[in-house]
Amino acid sequence: MIKSKVEKIFLGIDPGTNVMGYGVLRIVGNKAELIAMGVIELSKYESHYLRLGKIFERVTSIIESYKPDEMAIEAPFFGKNVQSMLKLGRAQGVAITAAIMRDIPIHEYEPRKIKMAITGNGNASKEQVAGMLQRMLHISKEDMDVQLDATDAVGAAYCHFIQMGKPETEKKFSSWADFAKKNQDKIHR
User: Fold this and answer.
1) Which of 10, 58, 133, 154 is deepest in the core (most CB within 10 A)?
2) How far is the C-alpha of 12 from the C-alpha of 95, rounded, in Å?
């Protein structure tokens, strides 16, 4: 796949140990276009370690096929089951390693941040995220992947696209009160 100089490719990953989603976006200027999305089915492999090996193989293959400039990955959701969190962290780590091996910059986003970027609601459902992505990226009903892990991965890539469009500010504020407190000397002039 040959890219023009003004074009970037973002790979999105929704890590999982049973199903891992991926999505690939082409970015040209301020427009994003879906190139590919799908899932890596892992539940057929009994061994967790074999699953990790398959994640590495498939993510490496996706990287070789689409040559992404950057990768956006969903941060693990913190639950109560420590064993599940450990396995999910390993799956995420293997996907990250595949990108590191190809010198691809990695950006991690919390699920709430992705949902907020896509729908404006950090508590949106996976179905709402998928529906919004379908509209924003003009994805036909036939091309929508039935697995929400795929659209979650596209959401991570699209969130990164949105974040890249925002200029970085020197000062970050957590609220209007925080802004006022840190700028008191300027307000009272």
Assistant:
1) 154
2) 11
Q: Which CATH code, of 3.30.420.10, 2.60.40.10, 3.40.50.410, 3.30.565.10, is assigned to 7-187?
A: 3.30.420.10
Residue with tokens 């970015």: 27
**pLDDT band at residue 178, thresholds of 50, 70 and 90?**
low
pTM of the model as a whole: 0.83
Residue-wise pLDDT for 50-109, tens only, equals 999 999 999 999 999 999 999 999 997 766 788 888 889 999 999 999 999 999 999 999
Q: Give Cβ neighbours of residue 170 (< 8 Å, ≥ 6 apart).
A: none
Specify burial of residue 109 (Cβ count, 10 A radius: 0-12, 13-18, 19+). buried
Query: Span 128-150, mean pLDDT?
Result: 90
Nearest to 67 by CA among 129, 142, 150, 9: 9
Strand partners, 11: 24, 71
Catalytic residue IDs? 14, 74, 149
Coil, strand or helix: which one is 137? Answer: coil
Q: What share of the chain is helix, strand, coil (3-state, %, to 5)?
A: 45, 20, 35
β-pairing verdict for 70-74 and 7-14: parallel
Q: And the tokens for 146? A: 């039935």
Residue 80 is encoded by which pair of tokens? 């109560």
| Cβ atoms < 10 Å from Cβ of 44 | 9
